[in-house]
Structures are given as C-alpha cells and as structure tokens.
Amino acid sequence: MTQPAKNPAENAVEIVEVGPRDGYQGIGPFIATERKIELLGRLVAAGLRRIEIGSFVSATALPQMRDTPDILAACKQFPDLEPQVLVPSERRGRDAVAAGARRLVFVLSVSEAHNRNNVRRAPEESADEYRRLLQAIPDDVAIRLDLATAFDCPFEGRIPEAKTLALLKRLVALKPDAEICLCDTTGRADPDHVGRLFSEAPSRFPEVKAWALHAHDTYGLGLANVHAAYREGVRIFDASFAGLGGCPFAPGATGNVATEDLVWMFERMGVATGVDLAALVSVARDGAALPGGLAGGRVRDALSAGSAACAVT
C-alpha cells in the first residue's frame, strides 16, 4: 500500500473498542449487566463510537456473554453508539439480527487447530457458514470478517502468509465490500510480519476498501504492530480499555493492546482519534479493577503516577 498522505483527515484513525466483548469474555465472576451498561456509557462519553458490546455464543462456553441481548437492547439509550456483536455461525448471526443487531462480526481462524478448538469445525466449514450467513441476513446489516490466527496460532505456531492469503481469496469473493480484520490472536506477531501481510493483502485484494488490525500485547509488541499496520495504510484498529482480555481458546494470550495506550500513541503522533484520553483513563482504571479481570497497558498507570507526583509537588 502507499504510505499515508499528509492530510490530517486522511491520517485519522478509527478505534474499535472491544473490551466489552474480548475484555470481559474470559472473566470468571459474572459482571452485573447494569455495571456493563454503566461502563459502556462512559466509554461512549469518552468518544468511542464503535464498540463490540458482546457476542452471540453458547452461554455454556462463555457464560460472561449470556446477557449480550440485554446489552444490545440497552444500546438504544446511547445515540452516538454504533454497537457490533461477534458471531461464529449462521445460527448465531440469525439470533443477533433477530435481537436487533445491525453490525455483525463473523469470526473464523486461519489455523485448523484453533478453529476446531474454538468453534468445532474446520476453517473451510466456517467459510461455508459465512456464506450461508451472508445469504440469510438483510442487506442493511453491516458485516465485518475477523480472521483469527492470521499471524500465529497457539497450537500450530507461526502461520505462513500464503496460508492467510489463500483463505482470504475464498472469503473476499463471498463479500468484497466487507471490512476485513486480521487478528494477532496470540500476540506473537512482529512488526515485520504485520507490515508484510498488510502490504500484500490489499495488493492482492484491491476490492476490499476497509482493513483492520486486532492486536494483542502478550509480548509487548501490540503498539509496534499497530504502528506497522498504520504505515501500510490501515486506519481501523481494535483495542480494549485497560488492556483487558485474552482469548479463552489461545492459552497464554493476554489482552488486546490497551485503548488508552493506542490513543496516547496516535495523539502524540498528531493523528486524530476522537477520544478524550482523560475520560478514557478514568473508565480504564475502573475496568482494571474488575474482579477476575486481567488488565494490561502502560499509559493508565503512567498518567496516574504523573498526577500523583504533581499533587505532591
């Protein structure tokens, strides 16, 4: 892809807040629905507009997500919010649309081992599920495709770029105008790998107009990988407030890159995010304190320490 233009409007990024889904799903103690809605409202007030509010999945597999229909219904009280929900199958996608969802995220893995561990089927079978879902939902429902283990798999190791591109070839043909997000599920991707894949994929599939990156920070490279994708022209990035998260089906993976860290980096670069960092840090502090949560990130603590030092001075 060509390097980013100097026009600030073209350099602006969209941050997709995924904490209420990716951040919560691995937490054992159930977070009260009212608490989830309160935190959601504060994230919206901080300027986050597109938020992944939950997933339509088996309540047995992910009990934390059992109130997603209730959270989705509550989104009506936030006019500026654009909620999206994750679905792994045609059936769950139908359920989400019936509940009022108008933006779906369909997820499947490049790695067969991870896909079978996650949704009990091969990637090719998930691709067929995706095709059936596209045929089943109304045209006014927006679709995003999350390609998990696009860089690395907890079971198979590093994923060859050719393998990711081969699956993309099949999936892009099904819906060329879908937003496509490449996911570093384990947090083991490196900036060179991210840069190469985000250079090659848009060149191979110019019909795709919106690419995104879902980065985890397991090995401390989350921000570096985001920056590598940004240099290749990517402008949509997932992040989780307080760095909450970790894939239940990727042993050892920690949370997404922290939303506050992402905002801090981009604002320091002169790249607009539309997010009020002070308001975000306030809700991130409360998110980090959720019982059973695994928080990450650096900016939240750094700003808190700075404020304390100023108060003492």
Fold topology:
Blueprint: H1 8-11, E1 14-17, H2 19-23, H3 33-45, E2 50-55, H4 68-74, E3 82-87, H5 90-98, E4 103-109, H6 112-119, H7 123-136, E5 142-148, E6 152-153, E7 157-158, H8 161-174, E8 179-184, H9 191-204, E9 211-215, H10 222-231, E10 236-239, H11 259-268, H12 277-288, H13 299-312
Parallel strand pairs: 1-10, 2-3, 3-4, 4-5, 5-8, 8-9, 9-10
Antiparallel strand pairs: 6-7
Helix pairs in contact: 3-12, 5-7, 7-8, 9-10, 11-12
Family: Belongs to the HMG-CoA lyase family.
Keywords: Lyase, Metal-binding, Pyruvate, Transferase
Pfam families: HMGL-like
Overall description:
Residues 13-281 form the Pyruvate carboxyltransferase domain. It is a single chain. The chain has helices at residues 8-11, 19-23, 33-45, 68-74, 90-98, 112-119, 123-136, 161-174, 191-204, 222-231, 259-268, 277-288, 299-312, and strands at residues 14-17, 50-55, 82-87, 103-109, 142-148, 152-153, 157-158, 179-184, 211-215, 236-239. With 313 residues, it is an alpha/beta fold. The chain has one domain: Aldolase class I (TIM Barrel). The strands form two sheets. The chain has an eight-stranded parallel sheet. Strands 6-7 form a two-stranded antiparallel sheet. α10 (222-231) links the parallel β9 and β10. α9 runs parallel beside α10 and α11 (259-268) packs antiparallel against α12. The N and C termini lie far apart (48 Å). 50% of the residues are buried.
